[in-house]
Predict the 3D structure of the following.
Amino acid sequence: MPRVRAKHVGNSVEGRRRRCEALASDLREVTSALIRRLRAESTGQALSMSQAEVLVRLHKSGPSTVADLARGERVTPQSMGTTVASLEEAGLVARTADPNDARRWNASLTEAGKRVLLEGRAARQAWLSHALEERLTTGDQRHLAEAIGLLRKVLGE
């Protein structure tokens, strides 16, 4: 359970700053732990986070150039090229000619890639849904829904 250090600080500007620092620390710690736990639910998949993100992006956006994928993931095109090549070697991504420019090629999700993506997502969703149902009261679930709204606000969504 994360430490809730932020409640013990006053209402001054300095107190608000320290409270926000404590909240940020607690939030970072708990989100990191949640991500690690969700990754553990996909242990049958030998995908790195960057590979998994590429599959997600291709599933959402359709075929994309390596440059577009790199921009979207904020990595270098060379790094993305390596990631896409490894996915291609595994049969999860295929190269297709860019219909607008024959000199370029697009990465697209194969059926195997889609299956791996959806199976991993289903395993993580099943674990999280079960944990929320088993470990949180209905009131806790409502509070969590409110907190998700606040997190979206922090992210600017």
